[in-house]
Amino acid sequence: MTVTSTRAKPEGILPDRTEAAAPKKRRRNPLPYILLLPAVLIVLVDMGYPLLRQITMAFQHFSLEQQFGKPAEFAGLDNFTRVLGDSAFWLTLGRSLAFCLVCAALTMAIGIGGALLLTKLSGPVSVFVQAAMLLAWAMPVLSSLQVFQWIFDSRSGVVDWTLAGLGLQGMAGYNWFSNPLTFFAVAAILVIWMSVPLVVFMVYASVTQIDESMLEASTLDGANGWKQFREITVPTIAPVLLLVTILEIIWDLRVFTQIFILQKNGGITEQTNVLGTYVYQVGLSGGDYGVASATALIMLVITLLLTWRYVTQFLKQGEV
């Protein structure tokens, strides 16, 4: 005869396995979202309305007459057709992409090298160098432009005087802004000089957070400086490098003030236009705001295409 035990399970001692395995729903605190809401609304109003207005104008015949109240007519894709059919736009686009990629690559290379050098300097020297770079980065763009125009001035510029003193023929009184190649060389130096400090600061801050034990262990394994940089430093600070690269591409593709001011010294505007100055000339100077808006939208799409790969990699890094 088989006896079946009907002993009751003591309550409150051993919970049921199904109950223990069931995940508990975490109750989200709404406070962070409430605090974030004002900032999101400000960004939407500050950037959303201009973007919506620009998209609307890109599909309209919008000129000076519309500025004074005349209703704008729907243009469809006519503005985009005019932009894409203009050979000057394609020349400007190629020039802008080349200038952007060269400046961004040199800025990243110089900035990363400067950050690594900072880690090797003594405390007081490192602080002095960082303070000098901070002043250079914080200097207003127009002030920097005035300095660079004086340095490369054809009549009293220190660069021409130095090169002529070294015996280089034809450099005395040379106008750096009258030739597209030298024009963009000076513009690139200016853009890179103003961008490098930020890259140095961000990379230096991330490099100093690397665990020293990892570097010491790799040294004991026989890894040299380059191998440590490639296999330890770069993977560790990859999110920062991706973020800075995205910002550099966006800034260098949208550069305007430096080119616009330097163009006044050379008189070769058409040969030195980038996308920013091209949009300005078509819109504000030419009065065709519809075509200028279409050009700006194309410029936005190009920026997104250039940075999409970096943005996706940056988001993947954030999910790890």
TrEMBL record:
Gene3D superfamilies: MetI-like. Its main location: membrane. The chain crosses the membrane at residues 33-52, 96-119, 131-152, 181-205, 232-251, 289-308. Residues 93-310 form the ABC transmembrane type-1 domain. It is found in: Cell membrane. PROSITE patterns: ABC_TM1 (PS50928). It holds the Pfam family BPD_transp_1. Keywords: Cell membrane, Membrane, Transmembrane, Transmembrane helix, Transport. It comes from the Bacteria. Residues 1-24 are annotated as: Disordered. It is a multi-pass membrane protein. Residues 8-19 have a biased composition (Basic and acidic residues). Belongs to the binding-protein-dependent transport system permease family. This is Sugar ABC transporter permease.
